[in-house]
Hints:
2 copies of one chain form a homodimer.
Chain A: H1 2-14, H2 29-42, E1 56-59, H3 73-85, H4 96-102, H5 106-111, H6 113-125, H7 130-143, H8 159-170, E2 174-182, H9 183-187, H10 190-194, E3 201-204, E4 208-213, E5 216-221, H11 233-242, E6 248-251, H12 257-264, E7 272-279, E8 286-287, H13 299-307, E9 310-313, H14 314-317
Parallel strand pairs in A: 1-2, 1-6, 2-3, 6-7, 7-9
Antiparallel strand pairs in A: 4-5, 7-8
Protein name (chains A, B): HAD family hydrolase
EC number (chains A, B): 3.1.3.-
Keywords (chains A, B): Hydrolase, Metal-binding, Signal
Amino acid sequence: MKRVLLSLVLTSLCGSAIAEPLSAWNDTAAKKAIVKWVENATDADRSTFIPPEERYVVFDNDGTLWPEAPLTFQIQFALDEVNRLAPQHPEWANDPLVQSVLNNDIKAVAAAGEPGLIKLLALTHSNITTTEFNQRVANWISSKKDPRFGCGYDRLGYQPMRQLLDYLRENGFKTWIISGGGIDFMRVLSQKMYGIPPEQVVGSFALGEFALTGDGTEIKKTMQGAFNDDATNKPVAIHLFMGHRPVAAFGNSDGDLAMMQYTAANPRAKTFGLIVHHTDAQREYAYDSHPPASGKLVEGLQVAKEKGWTVVDMQKDWKTVFDPAQCPAMETK
Amino acid sequence: MKRVLLSLVLTSLCGSAIAEPLSAWNDTAAKKAIVKWVENATDADRSTFIPPEERYVVFDNDGTLWPEAPLTFQIQFALDEVNRLAPQHPEWANDPLVQSVLNNDIKAVAAAGEPGLIKLLALTHSNITTTEFNQRVANWISSKKDPRFGCGYDRLGYQPMRQLLDYLRENGFKTWIISGGGIDFMRVLSQKMYGIPPEQVVGSFALGEFALTGDGTEIKKTMQGAFNDDATNKPVAIHLFMGHRPVAAFGNSDGDLAMMQYTAANPRAKTFGLIVHHTDAQREYAYDSHPPASGKLVEGLQVAKEKGWTVVDMQKDWKTVFDPAQCPAMETK
Lengths: 333, 333
């Protein structure tokens, strides 16, 4: 009621200056499906009503809220960190994986597979305190630009999805990220980029080690108990961290399928599922069965049909991909 | 502002009928220290002000929010479950630990140490779905009474601590539980008992296993990746789940010390620490260096002195221990 009143007052004060929710979406079926579901879920007079205390919704991050091509931003960070740190680590000189990174031989790095990835994470994401790690991520973000889009990675959240997060929160939904990305990495950025506080950001993690220090305490990052928050681990993480069954799930790849199925099977709500299909090579990237790095989408499209999930055609359904105010370089491309 | 107005209106409407915050506390130094810290933390004109977005506070559960003697409630649950399930498990007949449980030989169970405990948890907390587990906890809670206090375990939250949780929340603090107890076990009870939703309850956990079923999905509890959320693991869990450094910590044992030190070393706030000292054999229990089951408190008392933490003398500082309205049997004892 108060929100309605405030909204009326603001409308009369500001006229058309008020931003439409979802203004970065074209007026196509995807947007209509979102709005219809939210209206159904929030109208206490309908059988589809979802009580506020059950309005938990989950979003994948890489490829759903920001790009994951040509490499995920976090892998780019790890590669950049290896380059930055190498001079301090003469012992890395004989390491073929490190040498591939230093030679920018991404094919060789990719060929090292998951063990190679875990090793890169160990070199750049462990054996330092959480404070130091956060600082390194912040430094990297403030100094590095995406080579294609010409602005900082923290300015590349998809504008339609950021508006969707706002729209859902305005309607009483608690927005969570459930991502294969590193939990500490994302949390440096999530509040500013998405309005999501650290405790609502869940990702891959490893356990820390606590210690008293001379003047305080520290938590050192390790690789112990590493948990890869992808595929069937996503519902497990949702249960562990959030402890509620979601009522809506937003993803873009087969790695999100289990999370979406877990959500769709919520017996207490008429749920919503949405898959972002990357169809826009001109403004972003176009891929599904053969992604540049991560984000394979084949089974997800099939199940979406069976389940009636909304599939976003990025090219047709999104008016803008990135916010020109956030990333002015986009405008001049 | 709105809260103040509402409070004024209610005061004039209801007069003295409004419950004092912390009415179950005597007007001793402990209560005064709490109120003073909250006033300092919430007054924007003081240097001790803590912005609302940093007001995260953490509570231990066993021995801090509810009793942990003569056994923790969850161990009692495990023992009761072994008794309930044994007829369905003829293969348990030759198991000495199970036989000790069935014979109510608690000494022998205790002598089995941590491996014994883990085995009891495996028998009663794993290889079932999370849905089934929650139902078992709910069934147990609704059918079982604490033998000494004569009412359900979910009615034995300490009244002063429940008021303290309310008081902190009314002042904009986010209240979290960080406990050695099982995360799934506590979450069945936390909303109703403490007003704390599942996602703000952190405890010992193991990873689940996700599966599609004929008509939906399930998460099966396992013992994989078991994490014991005690002692130096508590700050690790706070970082992992909450992702903020707390500004206040409430515990009762040496197992809470690392969490309290981690909190006290928060460089961004004038923090608060409080230890519940069990000094009241008549109304609850009296122990520190030699607890009945868990809750050893020796080093914590020492560090509390050095750090200026508040130590609650349960006998002197608490007007009531349990809420007579919750547990009427108490009144007639």
